[in-house]
Amino acid sequence: MASKVLLTGGAGYIGSHTALEFLLAGYEVVVVDDLSNSSEKAIERVEKLADKSVRFERLNVCDGEAMRKLLTEVGAVDAIVHFAGFKAVGESVQKPVEYYRNNLDSALVVCEAAKEFNIPKIVFSSSATVYGLAERVPLVETSPTGGCTNPYGWTKYMIEQILRDFAKATPSLSVTLLRYFNPIGAHPSGEIGEDPLGIPNNLAPFVCQVAVGRRPKLNVFGNDYPTPDGTGVRDYIHVVDLAKGHVAACDHAKPGVKVYNLGTGRGYSVLELVETFKRVNNVDVPYEIVDRRPGDVAICFADATLAREELGWTAQYGLDEMCRDAYNWQKKNPNGYRD
Ligand code: WQD
Questions:
Q1: What is the distance between the alpha carbons of residues 260 and 245, in angstroms, rounded to a whole number?
Q2: Ligand 1 site: residues with CB under 6 angstroms?
Q3: What is the tens place of the pLDDT at every residue in 313-326?
Q4: Nearest atom of ligand 1 to the alpha carbon of 270
């Protein structure tokens, strides 16, 4: 009997790539998603890529009754991978109450469901943003957390705490907190990828939209940081590597709480990414240096040793492949899933 995993927010960018990797690893996959920031087309494409079906249910994870009904229908689930949540940093500053309500409520419903249906594993989509304005890099899992610079980051920090307390009260439960660095790129097929609504907040999707002519130029937020070329340095990780990290986390899960950085351990600047993107795709990306974006840190990258040692997981793709695959998806889907 194959293990069965429930992905909340599994139609989203990281969720859909993770659904595919679980299918390829032999799991049965159930996806719940309210499609507020995703498309059911992503699920259809995942099924085609894996040549396997996904049990998809459109619902809001904050709706405990709907979750209960679904879990009663699908039967025993070995793990919940919790992606569902609002995730736009800037928007969270404008709408903090909506972010706390949505992200915390959905996490609490996941805990209640795990308790009621005896689901032994929870894997949580956390973020390097919980490290706040980190003083020291590379970041290790024992680096101080808190001091988040926005409500979105605080929701991730608070959900980590909720899950720790829930695990303390539930000795048989396994909780794995996966702290993502900067996921970019797309499945090499170009069939699934990042499809942000409106103006992209993040660098890679914005670069892709400039490269395909949807936007005239990239604004580079500051070149006066204490970095080699003055622009911000981040730990970009291929979304397929990130997805595989979830399968590894699930496969290795044991009772108790474990925290892992999912990064490459290498930082690249904005201009390094832009120049790599131009080189590997033989495309122009016009840009202009503008003022810093409030809340940005100069440098953020992971120490990814623990995931390698304990999960046997290491990122395999480099920046060239991330840029190649991001552009391939965008070229094949200039308007994302809305084509
Ligand atoms: C990367 C670099 C910008 C856009 C955020 C969230 C984090 C996680 C990943 C969810 C920075 C520069 C960006 C642009 C630019 N999301 N930039 N022009 O801010 O590191 O992390 O996304 O978990 O929680 O905080 O990612 O892609 O927005 O920025 O110059 O149009 O690119 O200044 O140096 P960030 P990003």
A1: 9
A2: 87, 89, 127, 129, 180, 182, 201-203, 206, 218-221, 232, 234, 270, 293, 296
A3: 999 999 999 999 99
A4: 32
